[in-house]
Amino acid sequence: MTDFFTHFLKRLLPEAWLGIGLLLWGSLCSQAWGQATGEIQQLRIERLDDEVVLSAQLQFDLPATIEDVLAKGIPLTFTAEAEVYRERWYWFDKRVSLAQRSYRLGYQPLSRRWRVVVLGPQGEGASLSMSQSYESLTEAMNAIKRIARWRIAEAAQLDPTVSHRVEFRYRLDVNQLAVPLQIGTLGQSDWNVTLTATAALPAGSSK
User: Fold this and answer.
1) Which domain holds residue 124?
2) Burial of 120 (0-12, 13-18, 19+ CB in 10 A)
3) Helix (H) / strand (E) containing 3
4) Looking at the domain assignment, is residue 121 inside a domain?
5) Is position 207 within any domain?
6) Using one digit for the tens of pLDDT, what is the confidence trace for 82-138?
7) Percent of the chain with pLDDT strictly greater than 90
8) What is the pTM of this model?
9) Is residue 8 part of a domain?
10) Cα(91)–Cα(89) distance, integer angstroms
11) What dihedral do alpha carbons 106, 69, 120, 207 form, nearest 10°?
């Protein structure tokens, strides 16, 4: 299996990425798989004067395989998505807003510090919103597990006379990895770090 993977990489991928791809492949093959599990706690949606904001506390642990990849200096990206739907009794609910935010987590071997970079909306030249360094992986993980008053829609997009539904999703975005690393994650369950939740926003509600 490893010989096939090596031959495939040589034909498909630039040589610059071959070594990294094989490094990750070896790491994945040498460890037992473990499914990442967790939950979304304290999910709260607030309708303020001119915006709708989302707050949440996430709870999940990374499998040892993923922590090992991070320790090798390979950054990972976690993406949060929030879709706001207006309920319609006569037809399918209408999506009125889609918000995205990414958290890039990486280890800096020279300084032995962990860095979290928060990026703005995807697809529009994701802009840097915040960058912070931490002493430990635990501190960095706590930072990306807490979402506070994230604006997910403009109040003007909502009809105050009807109810709305918010679908929230938080996931490890393997599509942000370099292609050789994406191939190494195919079919591996412990890379499926995904949390989902739905919250109702009643008509005229401020919370």
Assistant:
1) 2-32+41-201
2) middle
3) helix 2-12
4) yes
5) no
6) 999 999 888 889 999 999 999 999 999 999 999 999 987 654 445 667 899 999 999
7) 45
8) 0.74
9) yes
10) 6
11) -100
